[in-house]
Design goal:
Elements lengths: L10 H4 L5 H17 L3 H9 L4 E6 L6 H8 L5 E3 L10 H14 L4 E4 L5 H13 L3 E7 L3 H9 L9 H10 L11 E8 L2 E6 L11
Parallel strand pairs: 1-3, 1-4, 2-3, 4-5
Antiparallel strand pairs: 5-6
Helix pairs in contact: 5-6, 7-8
C-alpha cells in the first residue's frame, strides 16, 4: 500500500526542515526498495501473500525429530509438541489450538510428535487446511536400534520406556499424499547430518533400515 504525501497547510510548513525521524523512515524505505528492486506497494503485497507452512514430523522417539526442528526450522517456525506440555490432559485439543493460533497469525508451524498413524496426521492436516497452510511431512527412517541407543542417553522427561519405542513402531502407518500432504520428504541421519530427499512412497516402516 502506498500513502500520498500531505500538502503543507501554511508557509511555515513549506519551509520546515524534515524531522530526524521522518528522514530515517524515508531512508529505510528507500534502501528497502533498492535492495528488493520493487516499490513499497509491491513489497507489502508480497509479504501479505506469503502462505504459512504446517510441517508434520513423523518418526519414533529418538529418531532425531526435535534436533531436526532446531537445525532446520528453529528460527522460522513455531514449535508445537505435546512433550512440551506439563499435562497430557486435553493435549490434543491444546495442540490444535496452538497450531490454529500460529497459522491465523501467518506464522509457520512444526508439529513435533510421533504422528505415527494416519488418523493422527489427518487431524493436523485438516487444521492446516482450515487456515490455508501448505502441508509438508518429514518421515524419519532412523532404525529402532539407533532410536533406543539415543533414548538411553537421555535424562528426565526426554527419556521414554523402551517399550514405548517398540509400541510406536507397531502402531506406525505409512504416510501417503492421499492424507492431504502437499509434499512428503524422507529424512535419514548419517554421522549427525540430516539428509532430506523426496519420500519414495514405498512401504517403509521406521526401523526397517
Amino acid at each position: 500500500m502506498t500513502y500520498p504525501l500531505a500538502e503543507p497547510e501554511n508557509d511555515s510548513e513549506k519551509n520546515a526542515i524534515p524531522r530526524a525521524s521522518e528522514c530515517r523512515l524515508f531512508l529505510q524505505c528507500l534502501v528497502r526498495c533498492v535492495t528488493l528492486g520493487c516499490s513499497p506497494a509491491a513489497t507489502n503485497t508480497r509479504n501479505s501473500d506469503r502462505v504459512p507452512e504446517l510441517v508434520i514430523l513423523i518418526g519414533l522417539p529418538g529418531a532425531g525429530k526435535t534436533t531436526f526442528y532446531r537445525t532446520r526450522f528453529g528460527s522460522t517456525h513455531v514449535h508445537v509438541s505435546k512433550d512440551l506440555m506439563r499435562s497430557r490432559h486435553d493435549a490434543q485439543k491444546r495442540q490444535l489450538a496452538l497450531i490454529d493460533e500460529a497459522l491465523a497469525a501467518g506464522r509457520s508451524v512444526v508439529v513435533d510428535n510421533l504422528n505415527a498413524t494416519a488418523a493422527d496426521r489427518i487431524a493436523l492436516v485438516e487444521a492446516g487446511r482450515r487456515r490455508g497452510a501448505a502441508i509438508v511431512g518429514y518421515v524419519f527412517t532412523t532404525a529402532i536400534g539407533e532410536c533406543s541407543r539415543r533414548n538411553r542417553g537421555r535424562a528426565g522427561r526426554e527419556r521414554v520406556p523402551e517399550v514405548a519405542i517398540r509400541a510406536a513402531a507397531k502402531r506406525y502407518e505409512r504416510p501417503t499424499k492421499a492424507e492431504g500432504f502437499d509434499r512428503l520428504e524422507q529424512v535419514t541421519t548419517d554421522a549427525g547430518r540430516f539428509d532430506v530427499e523426496p519420500y519414495p512412497g514405498e512401504p517403509c516402516r521406521p526401523g526397517a533400515v
